[in-house]
Amino acid sequence: MKIVRKLVVSAVLLSLVLTSPIFAEGAREAATTQKVVTWCHIWGAGTEREQITKSIELFEAANPDVKVEEIILDAATWQPKLIQLLAGDDPPDIFLRYPGPNTTALVDQGVIAPLTEMWKEYGLDDVIPSGLKDVATYKGEVYNLPWGYHPTIVLYNKKMFDRLGLKVPTTIKEFEMVADALKKSGVYPLASGASGLWRTSYVLELLLTSLSGPEFYKDLMNMDASWADPKARVAYTYWKRWVENGYWYPDMRSRRWAEGLTILLNGESGMYFLGTYGVPMLEQAGWVLGEDFHAFLFPQENKSFPRTLIGPFDTWSKAAKAPHPKEADRLLAFLAQKDAQTMRARYHGGMACNKNVAEYDAIGEMIRDAMNAGAGFNQVIGNALPAVGVELINKGACPDFYDNPDIERFIATAEEARRRFHAEK
User: Fold this and answer.
1) Is the whole-model pTM more than 0.85?
2) pLDDT tens profile 135-155
3) CA–CA distance from 148 to each of 6, 45, 154, 320, 327 (Å)?
4) CATH class for domain 4-148+315-365?
5) CATH code that applies to domain 152-310+386-424
6) In this structure, how many other beta carbons lie within 10 angstroms of the beta carbon of residue 423?
7) Neighbours of 226 (CB within 10 A)
C-alpha cells in the first residue's frame, strides 16, 4: 500500500522564528515537546491542496506545540486503504469521511471516535448550523466535523429568462411551466454532463426531499425504506414525465459535468442542475452573476417538511485509536472556526460550514441564509449509499432511467440493491 506522507512546514511560524529571538527560544523549547497529529485525505494538488496547506500554517502558528503531518491517499483507492489504516495499530488522527452510511458503517465497527464532547467543549453549536450537525449525528453522537458542502442548485441563463419573461419558480408546477416555455422557444430546458454517472441522481434526490421529506430520503439511502414505497413513486412520476418531455439535452453520458456547462454557456439550454462548484467555471468563461446567469433553490413542494439541500459534503472524522486525541480535537475545532472556514470558502468555492463566514456571492448568501433559517442538508446519494447501492442504483438505475424511463424497472434494480445490501450486512 503506497501512502504519501508530507510534512508541511509553517511559513508563518518559520518567519517568526527567524525574526524574533525570544520567540525562537520558545519555539525551540516547544519543538522538544511537540506532538505530531496526522491528517489523512485525498487532495495532493489543486485548490484543495492550497486550502489544507494554509489551514496547517494557521493552526501550527497558533499551536506551536503541535505539528501536522499529512497522509495523502490516492483518490481512486482511498476508501479501502483508509479502512486498513483505521483497523491497524497506527491510524491517522483525523481523516476525510463522508457522512451517512460511509461513516455509520465504520462507527458500528468501532473505528471512529465520537466528537460530541469536543463539539460541546468548543461551542460548535454556536457556529455550525443545526441542519449540518444533523447529518453528522448517528445514534445521538456527532461523528463528523463539517468542512464544506456543495448544494445542488439550478443554474440558469438570466438573459434568456428575462428575454422570455420567465420568473424563478417557487413550486414544481411553476418549474414545469418554465421548462415548457424554454422548450417552446427552441432550446432545451436542461443541460447535463454525467459521464461519471453519479450526478444523474440529482433530480431524483431533489424531488424526493421536496415531495416526501428528508427522513424518508435518509431511509432510502440507508436501504431501510422500500424504493417501491408510494412516497418514492410520486417522485418517479415527475422524473419520468420530464424525461419523456425531452427536458434534457441528449446523450448526457458522453460529457463530463464541465462539458455540460458549455451547453448552458452556448445558449442551447436554459438551466442546469449542478453543485455550486459550477459557478466559478461560468465566471471564468466571462459570465457575470446577476447579469448573465443566476441560480435558485429547487422548490420545496411539501411545506410540512423543511427545505432540504442535497450535495457532496466534505467532513473530517477522528480515529477511535487516534494516537493524539486531544490534539486532534484541537485541530478539528480549529477547522470549524471562522478564520479556517473563511479561507476554505475563499480557496475552494462552495459553502463553508461556519454560520459567520461572509465570503459569498449572491448565490452563496442565498444558501447560507436558507441554512441559517433552519434548512436541512443531505449527503448526495453517490457519496452516501453503501457500495452495493452505488453500483446498482447510482451508476446503473439512475443513468439508465434517462434512456428508458421505466419506473417498474428502476424499482426492481433498486430493490435488488437493497436485498443484496441486507444479505451482506
Assistant:
1) no
2) 999 999 999 999 999 999 999
3) 23, 17, 19, 23, 22
4) alpha beta
5) 3.40.190.10
6) 8
7) 15
